[in-house]
Amino acid sequence: MSQPATHALSRRRFLTAASTLAASSALSPLFGINLASAATPDGEILSCSNFGAFWAKVQAGRVVGVRPWEGDPHPIATIEGAVDLAYSPSRIRYPMVRRSWLEKGPGAEPETRGRDDFVRVSWDKALDLVAAEIKRCAAMGPWSIYTGSYGWGHFGRLFNSQTGLRRLFNLMGGSVGSSSNYSKAGLEAIMPYVLGQIDAEGPQTSHQTILENTDLIVFWACDPLKDNHISTNVPDHGEYGWFEAMKKAGKKAIFIDPIKTEGCKLLNGEWLPVRPHSDVALALGIAHVLITENLADKKFLADYTTGWEVFFDYVTGKPDGTPKTPEWAAEKTEIPAETIRELARRFAKGRTMLVSGWTPQRQQHGEQFPWVFVTLAAMIGQIGLPGGGFSQRYHLDNAGAPQADSPALSTTMQAGKRKETMPWPKEKGAETIPVARIVDMLMNPGKPYEHNGKTFIYPDVKMTYWVGGNPLHHHQDRNRQVAAWKKFDTVIVQDFQWTASARFADIVLPAATGLEREDIEGLGVVTRKAYFAVRKVIEPLYEAKSDYVIFQMLAEKLGIEPEFSDGKTELDRVKQVYAAALEQATAKKIPMPDFDAFWKAGIVEFATPEKNVRRTKYAQFREDPLLNPLPTPSGKIEIFSKTIAKFGYDDCPPHATWLEPVEWLGAKEKKYPLHVNSNHPDYRLHSQLNGTKVRAIYAAAGREPCTINTRDAAARGIKAGDVVRVFNDRGQCLAGAVVSDDIRPGVIQLQEGGWYDPVKANEPNALCKYGDVNVLTLDIPTSRLAMATSAHTCMADVELFKGELPKVSVFDQPKNG
Ligand SMILES: Nc1nc2c(c(=O)[nH]1)N[C@H]1C(S)=C(S)[C@@H](COP(=O)(O)OP(=O)(O)OC[C@H]3O[C@@H](n4cnc5c(=O)[nH]c(N)nc54)[C@H](O)[C@@H]3O)O[C@H]1N2
Ligand SMILES: Nc1nc2c(c(=O)[nH]1)N[C@H]1C(S)=C(S)[C@@H](COP(=O)(O)OP(=O)(O)OC[C@H]3O[C@@H](n4cnc5c(=O)[nH]c(N)nc54)[C@H](O)[C@@H]3O)O[C@H]1N2
Ligand SMILES: [Mo]
């Protein structure tokens, strides 16, 4: 999408830097292992992040420059932010306690959270307070403590900080955890019924196979060029090469998206600006044409699927008298009926690869889209054929790339089992809740809820400890959440940035960034091309400590340190991760240096034997569905699920179904006229880097950008760079207008992750000064099946902001911070 000029400038600068580096690279061609030099004579140290690997130039103990690692084929400007995190004005410097809590104890004046001041305390004092509160709550019962602590968290393999947290609490008698995620919980709940597995994970049909066989590639709610910027480990950024190759080959591509993405522009793709939230209707309209024009692959449906007849009846309108014709779909999607007919014909004519992202399942009834998507691919009948079928994960991990000959890196710490200090009767509540139902839990303690065919009870939690996540960014309907947060007597947050979650906490513990501790991390989740040594580039600033050390110190206070750490230091664990990989490598005869050599070099790279690997997902199933059945009850793709039928959920019927959402552009009566697209940000990982200088690349009027179509902007007298107020019945925020024709009329985009910055914290309908989209979003479950987030079900309006502009303050230290 069009961005302020600084975006392009900065990107160009980085690309130039990268190509110069590539040309002068000292790396030899890859065969076996390759040990580059980790530290250059002028004090550069190789390091890495979720945004890419880089050389950090260190002078007098301070990072003074960053340049991308020469092995990165497409470096992203955000690596500067990964370093700036340590120095940002938003850095949490010391252990801090909210004044009322410190003076009056747990539960004191929770309504002042977010505006009370903080008092600096020593580490010793802070951990004494945390330990005492854990003991107090543990004595009430493990159901009193919520450690569902969700978020991207700790970078590196030495441990997952959230697993560490669970381990610590398990040793204290247990706590309430969370299941699934905000990413694809709708998909993760439904796919096991349809395909017997989550599907949207691991290696996909290879890019090479697509290049050689696919006639038409359809990116449906999918933005691989943006979403592959980052990774859960170090991104290899290889998908840019794939896009370039597709462009060179003149590959035909369609992008079904309310936004014309960079990928669409690069491939000169056809943009179908679908009405958001209508994708199921679009798929049904296409299915209707496949049926009526005799284009559906009946043999595939007979041999590889079950329940087709029921879906056939539904599409042709037998049970409800409404055939899902292209005209029916056109009314919902605003894509002309003739275009829908053409789509169906084109999909069936050549080899077609359907590629989806995850926004249509992050909506009310989000289970339906992945189901109809797989059903449509089954009707086309190309699943398991080279370059045909579907994929639900090309937008993460460069998942169509070849895999190197390398051992997987595994973490060494498990959460373990809960120590049974007391029994946990069912009526005390569930041991895990669906992650996005946290506010429902806080508002309904002791009440029953349904989830995936079973009934549970919401526990009555009193305290929470959050590490490596920002719930006051990632959760929906901020005002409802802030009100519900008062239920906690105590909120502990361990982070390195003064996020809204930290500002609304009672005890804040300063964590070390990836630059300030030791760890190990892999390059490429699928490609697995290298391991990086994450060495201490600088000493921890202020009083920050690494997550592992904080947990060790806390475990010591609780008298469980030996069990928690198994007597291992951070570096011991890093060595253990490496040793486990080395053992696998030795067994497979993969050359790998010993730990010391690796640590000195900073990197070990692995060879990729098959550069142009051909790989087709579900090929074996297609070859012989009896010998290689899917792990579903029938062994086939379940277009109709008997198990789901038994649940009797009206919000998740037993086959893919169009269900009208509570709010969307197609509603007969709309209170607010604009759909809010809160997709994932270009230049951040969610809310990370907000506080860094990377913000200058994208901020508009010093705020989070709100992209609005030219027509909608003109109708409201809004120009680019204006400060606007975005509002609905749930909340309101300011943002900077970006006016563009690359967004469909009727839709605005406010990317998720802008830090929540209320004018008057903890007051109903507080105005967010910076642009947190989740003040607007709706906090309802997708359905009783997944109980996932419905973040993308949201309508609002925008107006020019005319009042006195409040100063953005969320990037500064809090009061007394
Ligand atoms: N409206 C809307 N909302 C959404 C989404 C959407 O599409 N629309 N997407 C959802 C999705 S898919 C997701 S995954 C969530 C993401 O939600 P989160 O994962 O909570 O978001 P992050 O901003 O990545 O938060 C990670 C936090 O961990 C901190 N951190 C990073 N590294 C470390 C470390 O080593 N130690 C410690 N202690 N802290 C660390 C960072 O500073 C940051 O505050 O958001 C969800 N929310
Ligand atoms: N740069 C960057 N990359 C990321 C992340 C990040 O924060 N920053 N987060 C990572 C994480 S945790 C996750 S879960 C994934 C998220 O993966 P996704 O959820 O797939 O990613 P999004 O970028 O939010 O959305 C993809 C596209 O869907 C479009 N879209 C929105 N609503 C609709 C709709 O109703 N219909 C249709 N057809 N299209 C729609 C958006 O305009 C966008 O272009 O991304 C990962 N990658
Ligand atoms: Mo996610």
From TrEMBL:
TM region(s), chain numbering: none
What's an example GO BP annotation here? anaerobic respiration
Similarity comment = Belongs to the prokaryotic molybdopterin-containing oxidoreductase family.
Cofactor(s) the record lists: Mo-bis(molybdopterin guanine dinucleotide)
* Molecular function GO terms recorded: electron transfer activity; molybdenum ion binding; molybdopterin cofactor binding; trimethylamine-N-oxide reductase (cytochrome c) activity
List the GO terms this entry assigns under cellular component, sorted alphabetically: outer membrane-bounded periplasmic space
Where Mo-bis(molybdopterin guanine dinucleotide) is bound, by residue? 152, 362, 470, 474, 517, 547, 774
| Keyword annotations from UniProtKB, A to Z | Metal-binding, Molybdenum, Oxidoreductase, Periplasm, Signal
* Domain Molybdopterin oxidoreductase: from-to ranges: 91-557
Look up the EC number in the record and give it. 1.7.2.3
Protein name as it appears in the record: trimethylamine-N-oxide reductase
